[in-house]
Amino acid sequence: MSKTIIRLTELPFKQRAIIKSFGETELYVKLLEMGCIPEEEISVELSAPFGDPIAINVAGYQLSLRKSEAENIMVELLP
After folding, report:
1. What is the span of the domain harbouring residue 55?
2. Taking CA atoms, which of 15, 20, 66, 68 is between 20 and 30 Å from 27?
């Protein structure tokens, strides 16, 4: 079975996924400091009225990210 890798911004609400990699390197350290580390489970929980920012669950807490930041997080869907 092939694994589906998508951008975090493409992840449906409440769908669980695993962080696999990051695109833009200048955000890498910032995302790591906020708990977005590879192999961590993540899900999109809320979205602002116009879609930006979004609230995600990661590392046991809720974090708000701009869509431009979330675009750089690649995730693998969980069953």
Report:
1. 5-77
2. 15
The residue with tokens 């990661």 is 58
Strands 61-65 and 54-58: antiparallel
CA-CA-CA-CA torsion sign (16, 51, 74, 31): negative
CATH for 48: 2.30.30.90
Is residue 19 a contact partner of residue 51, using CB atoms and an 8 Å limit?
no
Taking only Cα atoms into account, the Rg of the chain, rounded to an integer number of angstroms, comes to 11
Q: What is the pLDDT along the chain (79 residues), one digit of tens a residue?
A: 568 899 999 999 999 999 999 886 678 888 888 888 999 999 999 999 988 999 999 989 999 999 988 998 999 999 8
Put simply, whether the predicted model's pTM sits higher than 0.70 gets the answer yes
